[in-house]
Design brief:
Largest sheet: 2 strands, antiparallel
Helix content: 55-70%
Strand order of the largest sheet: 1-2
Number of helices: 21
Strand content: under 5%
Oligomer: single chain
Length: 495
């Protein structure tokens, strides 16, 4: 796995070089080559992680609308990760499901509602220009991954391999965050690959706070992955390494001075230790000493101390909201400006919202997640997705309670719930995540999260006791002596 991670990083550096330090045609050739390589490859975890980083960022490079390809001259470019979603769907189409997906019925219902929202958009009025039609299509395509990934990722080891790549990216994001705050420039700007007026960074001083961080979506999914494997009794990751990922993620969001993100990550971690992880006093002491040493090391950089102090002062403004000041001392406009603007338009079509119409695209505001959710899909759309969430997490919760304490997945299933609660807080406070359309990186991490939950639910149901669990794992290892990049044969399970 180490060699694969090294190659993954090399490919990431090559992508940066092709996109930012070479003529434009080089990037096009490189990106097309990666799509062709993915088409012929059987290593799904590797390529999912790669297309996620060119969509979400790598070492301060890439991000939204940075890795683009032109499909038809004269029309807007299409993100590379959009092509990944299409190719993944085509590859999955010819594969039989390796296991039954317990929430398949809800996926179909959600897809039907998406089609309804498209039709409603046409009825309410939307431009028929090709660029608008492509825009609607690009917003929907990432949702296909909810159907594709369960077929392409047939075993837990594939998800584990994917997290192995993304954990490394989380570490690089943490280093990039510290670098940006300390130097006052992003790596892309520092190396002359980005306009300093676009890459938001500056010298941090008292009262002048840097607000931003890298790999937002990867941070969410790696926070989940680290907590899951800490609870999973057959974990093969080093425990201290996983705690390091959790700590790095928290320090990254703390350095960003973003209140919603800081509370969200802290909420996930706190709920995990309260309801999932039981840790010995000895290990707690070791972890505490390690965390204190890391914090002291970070605080040894003067500008980092100033930024953290500014972050805490910004966090304290949240108390004003509790006291009735919706502006949080003049630092927040979501509740008193953005939300009312969206809700006023939603009130004109409350039942089904405005769908993919010109009205929606004009008034949409991703800074107010729940309000924008209503604007797009209405009360019916929100209720349908809420029912899906309730069904998904209640099934995991009930099954977890039925498992014996020694079962490998006992407790690990609860990680899906505690992470989702923190994730939904983030959706409600900082940026919309849950909707009937996605950016590619958001679609990838959500499809990965829910697909992994479907597989773990199936495994927990299948292996009702640890003995049976071990027997099935040994049987799979015997019949499928393949590496992650090779084809995973369809397993035959004994009931």
């Amino acid at each position: 796995m180490f060699k694969k991670i090294v190659f993954f990083l090399i490919l990431g550096f090559m992508a940066v070089a092709a996109r930012y330090f070479a003529p434009g045609f080089v990037a096009n050739i490189f990106f097309v080559t990666t799509l062709i390589a993915y088409w012929y490859s059987k290593d799904e975890p590797f390529w999912l992680a790669f297309f996620l980083i060119v969509s979400d960022g790598f070492l301060g490079f890439f991000g939204d609308y940075q890795a683009m390809l032109t499909l038809i001259p004269g029309l807007p470019q299409i993100e590379l990760a959009q092509f990944y979603a299409l190719i993944a769907t085509i590859k999955a189409w010819n594969r039989k499901p390796a296991y039954p997906l317990f929430y398949q019925g809800f996926l179909v219902a959600l897809l039907v509602y998406v089609i309804f929202l498209v039709l409603q958009g046409y009825a309410a009025g939307v431009s028929l220009a090709l660029n608008m039609q492509f825009r609607i299509l690009k917003l929907i395509v990432p949702m296909l991954l909810f159907f594709a990934i369960p077929r392409l990722f047939a075993e837990e080891r594939q998800y584990r391999a994917c997290f192995s790549y993304l954990f490394v990216v989380t570490i690089t994001a943490f280093i990039t965050q510290v670098f940006t705050v300390a130097v006052g420039l992003s790596p892309a700007t520092y190396l002359g690959a980005a306009d300093p007026t676009v890459q938001f960074a500056f010298e941090v001083t008292e009262g002048k706070t840097y607000r931003g961080f890298y790999n937002c979506d990867i941070l969410v999914i790696t926070q989940f992955g680290a907590l899951f494997y800490l609870a999973y009794k057959r974990n093969t990751f080093n425990t201290m390494y996983l705690f390091g990922i959790v700590t790095a993620n928290f320090i990254s969001v703390l350095l960003s001075a973003t209140r919603g993100w800081t509370v969200s990550v802290a909420m996930m971690t706190a709920l995990f230790f309260m309801f999932v992880m039981q840790i010995s006093a000895k290990r707690l002491a070791i972890l505490s000493v390690t965390a204190v040493a890391l914090v002291i090391g970070i605080l040894s950089i003067p500008v980092i101390r100033v930024q953290i102090d500014n972050s805490f002062k910004r966090m304290q403004t949240m108390s004003a909201v509790a006291e009735g000041d919706l502006t949080a001392g003049g630092t927040l406009v979501r509740l008193n400006e953005r939300a009312p603007r969206v809700m006023k338009v939603w009130a004109e079509s409350p039942l089904t919202g405005w769908g993919f119409s010109s009205t929606y695209f004009y008034y949409q505001d991703l800074h107010v997640g729940n309000h924008n959710w209503l604007l797009h899909s209405g009360v019916l759309g929100v209720l349908l997705m809420a029912l899906f969430f309730f069904y998904f997490f209640s099934k995991l919760y009930l099954l977890n309670g039925m498992l014996p304490r020694s079962h490998p997945l006992r407790g690990a299933l609860l990680v899906f719930i505690v992470v989702f609660l923190g994730w939904f807080f983030l959706h409600s406070s900082s940026r919309q995540y849950f909707a009937y359309h996605f950016r590619p990186n958001t679609g990838i991490i959500q499809a990965l999260f829910f697909s992994f939950g479907g597989l773990m639910y199936y495994k927990a149901r299948l292996w009702s006791d640890p003995t049976e669990y071990e027997a099935q794992e040994q049987a799979l290892e015997t019949t499928n002596q393949v590496e992650t990049e090779e084809e995973v044969a369809e397993p035959v399970y004994q009931y």
